[in-house]
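Researcher: Let's do a round of design. I'm pasting the structure tokens now; please hold your answer until I've finished.
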């Protein structure tokens, strides 16, 4: 089976409570950024809000709805914390400290994919704000409107002077 990867370069700039657990992939910044990653206390609710907004956008283009996937959520949340704690925001979606990209991250989370896209943002303070920004950027919009995508994962973290960080992983499983 052919594997297709749809990656997106960042074009837009990028809520509040508990400390994130260390990334499940074992990554540790060893103080490289000096930040402590925190996740919103209402993380599940914010993820659901992002999914609803993404699905509203997709419906407007005649596309099917996507559902939240726990493995994609984990990959997105881990990378979100890596960016905050490592104090980086990679235009190429590659972690400069590990060399891992979106494909590496979702596979490490146990998700075998057929299609994959990722959006990143920071500085936005609400699901509405970040989804609007992504939809106003042609490259980010292409990820949200990827016809092959059936599932999403959302990561949201704070702890950086650059404001909240957002990761949206959209994919479809290799085996339905």
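Researcher: That's everything. Go ahead.
Model: Designed sequence:
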């Amino acid at each position: 089976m052919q594997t297709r990867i749809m990656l997106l370069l960042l074009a837009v700039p990028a809520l509040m409570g508990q400390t994130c657990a260390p990334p499940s992939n074992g990554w540790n910044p060893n103080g490289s950024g000096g930040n402590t990653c925190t996740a919103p206390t209402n993380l599940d609710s914010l993820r659901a809000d992002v999914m609803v907004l993404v699905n509203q956008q997709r419906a407007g283009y005649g596309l099917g709805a996507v559902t939240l996937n726990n493995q994609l959520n984990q990959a997105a949340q881990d990378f979100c914390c890596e960016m905050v704690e490592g104090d980086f925001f990679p235009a190429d979606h590659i972690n400069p400290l590990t060399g891992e990209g979106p494909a590496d991250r979702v596979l490490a989370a146990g998700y075998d994919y057929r299609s994959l896209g990722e959006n990143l943002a920071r500085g936005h303070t609400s699901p509405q704000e970040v989804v609007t920004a992504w939809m106003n950027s042609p490259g980010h919009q292409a990820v949200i409107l990827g016809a092959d995508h059936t599932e999403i994962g959302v990561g949201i973290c704070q702890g950086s002077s650059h404001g909240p960080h957002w990761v949206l992983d959209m994919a479809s499983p290799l085996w339905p």
